[in-house]
Structure to design on (248 residues):
């Protein structure tokens, strides 16, 4: 009877936590909706537009800090803050390299988090190794495909190696997300890669102008950050549940 009561209590706790998490994410959903409502193709770069664009990411950082504490500044919360800096920089085309640098730091912080003790450690399986290989091939092939367009871009001497380093960092981040075996974390990392690939194809003029192209980039980007946030909170929650199980 005690075991059944404990199990029922744990289920109620998880349900309550899920509801609380959803409630804490409401500001993110509202600010994202505001961004898409106000966005137009001829949007003039301004401090206001930078604030509207970065607000959803900053609100996710607040959520992570409120759930996981101040130590997450050196993890996912810090990655979200640097992502918000990157959001602001990308409003102005001349700050593209600075924005890419901010996102590179974000990927480093995500990668460090995915290696931390809050995520359960699993031995590398054959499937994991196969997925690592797929990521490496896809990332490398995309960079090779992008290379001639990078050579034609302004500041190609900085962009060409910079984009290469960035692709390495985001690929490592996605590979470490596979290692965590958290569905939200993995899907978030892959969505981030899709978003960045879409952005690169447009910024470096690989494709002709795409109607609503920026919308595709931002939908996959906000989705990526949301999933990484939820994955990090759930990882801490699962670890706490496991600790309680070991003590009981």
């Amino acid at each position: 009877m005690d075991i059944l009561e404990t199990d029922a209590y744990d289920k109620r706790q998880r349900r309550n936590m899920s509801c609380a998490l959803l409630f804490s994410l409401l500001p993110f959903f509202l600010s994202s909706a505001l961004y898409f409502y106000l966005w137009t193709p001829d949007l003039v770069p301004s401090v206001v537009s930078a604030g509207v664009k970065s607000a959803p990411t900053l609100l996710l950082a607040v959520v992570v800090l409120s759930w996981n504490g101040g130590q997450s500044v050196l993890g996912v919360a810090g990655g979200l803050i640097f992502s918000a800096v990157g959001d602001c920089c990308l409003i102005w085309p001349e700050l593209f390299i600075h924005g890419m640098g901010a996102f590179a730091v974000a990927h480093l912080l995500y990668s460090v988090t995915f290696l931390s003790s809050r995520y359960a450690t699993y031995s590398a399986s054959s499937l994991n190794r196969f997925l690592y290989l797929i990521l490496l091939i896809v990332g490398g092939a995309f960079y090779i495909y992008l290379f001639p367009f990078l050579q034609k871009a302004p500041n190609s001497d900085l962009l060409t190696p910079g984009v290469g380093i960035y692709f390495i960092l985001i690929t490592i981040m996605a590979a470490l997300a596979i290692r965590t075996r958290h569905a939200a974390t993995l899907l978030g990392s892959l969505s981030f890669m899709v978003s960045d690939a879409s952005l690169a194809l447009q910024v470096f003029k690989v494709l002709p102008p795409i109607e609503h192209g920026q919308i595709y980039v931002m939908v996959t980007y906000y989705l990526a950050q949301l999933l990484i946030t939820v994955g990090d909170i759930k990882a801490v929650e699962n670890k706490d549940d496991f600790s309680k199980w070991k003590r009981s």
In short: The chain has nine helices and no strands. Residues 241-248 have pLDDT under 50 and may be disordered. Residues 111 and 173 are 5 Å apart (CA to CA). Residues 213-247 form the longest helix (35 residues).
